[in-house]
Amino acid sequence: MSVAILKYDLSTLKMSVIYLPLWDGYARPTVLMSTEDDCGLGFATVLGSKLYLWARESGHDGDVGWAQSRVIELETLLPANALTISPKVVGFADGVGVFFVQAVNVIFSIDLKSIQVKKVHDGSGIRSVVPYMGFCTPALGADASSEEQGAGPSTEEQEADVSSEELGVGDHSLQVRNQELVQVHEILKLLVHDLLNGEGSFF
């Protein structure tokens, strides 16, 4: 049985399936990622003590397929006692190129650019890591006493005004994105329902 990626195109509203390559480690835990140049789709998996990176590339004949782009030897990066069983990749921080690998009961982060390894969690019960990046917007209701006294707006208040405009644009984009995600969710529910009842098929 092949492992596949379900793709939904928001511009055409069409769904398709991208199959992963059949190889000895395809059944291992696999994490989707952007390629190292952030221009394409990739995935990563661990087999033995090696982290394999794959990228979807176009061939000379125009056909698109999977190509193994990089292999990282974990034996030289992780402690010896962390390799008593084969590690597994459990997460990826898109945009910064950091993988999260579980070795026994310890989660390590691996930076693809610097190949630096950090221990981020020690304990059992972790099946996957979903990293996120937060941000802080300056307070939008800053004290306006200086303006009431005839003073001009401070640098902080000017920055807050700019941030509020940017936030408005971001809120609109977020609303559109949420609507698109709701549509995808409804389509996926219908697809799963059809597949469970033997009425649907992948194309």
From TrEMBL:
Annotated spans, Disordered: 144-165
Domain (F-box protein AT5G49610-like beta-propeller) ranges: 4-134
Top-level taxon of origin: Eukaryota
Record-linked InterPro entries: AT5G49610-like_b-prop
Protein name: F-box protein AT5G49610-like beta-propeller domain-containing protein
Source species of the chain: Arundo donax (Giant reed)
